[in-house]
Amino acid sequence: MVDLAGRRVGPWADRARILHTDGSLPLPLPDGSAERFVATYVLDLLEPDYARRVIEYAHRVPIPGGRLCLASLTWGRSRSGAIVTAAWHGVWRRAPRLVGGYRPIWLLPLIPERSWAVQDDTMVQSWGVSSEVVIASRSEEH
Ligand SMILES: C[S@@+](CC[C@H](N)C(=O)[O-])C[C@H]1O[C@@H](n2cnc3c(N)ncnc32)[C@H](O)[C@@H]1O
Q1: Which of 18, 36, 42, 43 to mutate for ligand 1's pocket (most ligand atoms within 8 Å of CB)?
Q2: Cα–Cα distance list, 48 to 44, 78, 104 (Å)
Q3: Which residue of 14, 15, 40, 104 is 20 to 30 Å from 95, comparing CA positions?
Q4: pTM to 2 decimal places
C-alpha cells in the first residue's frame, strides 16, 4: 500500500510523502506540518475513546487555517438508509469481522468545538449505505 500510494502521489512528490505507521499516537507528523488532516473510513473502526484522542491529536497537525476532513459510515436517515444501517449494526454486534470491523458512528460528537469550527457536515447515501462527511477549520484557541 505504501508503494501504491507513493506511485499515486508521484506527480506531487515535492509536497506529498507517504509514511507507514502502526496507528499509535502520536503519529510521526511534526506540529503544523500539513494543510489538511484527512481520515476517511478509519474512525468508524476505532474505539470511541481512541477516535476522540485521534481528533484531539489532529489539532496539532494542520497549519493555522488548516482543515480537518473526515468521512465515516454513519446512521442512515432515510427509510432505506435506516434499514441498511440497522442490519449492518446488528451484524457488527454479533460478528464484526463480517463487516470488516466497521460500524456506523456520528462524527460531530468526536470533534471538540473549542478546537474546530465545523464548516460542513453532509450525509451521503450509496446503495443504502450512509456516510457522514465533515469539514472543519482549525480554531487557533485551544
Ligand atoms: C477502509 S480503510 C480506509 C483507507 C483510506 N483512508 C481510504 O479511505 O481509502 C481503513 C484503514 O484504517 C486503517 N486502520 C485500521 N486500524 C487502525 C488504527 N488502529 N489506527 C490507524 N489506522 C487504522 C487500516 O489499515 C486501513 O488502511
Answers
A1: 42
A2: 8, 25, 11
A3: 40
A4: 0.90
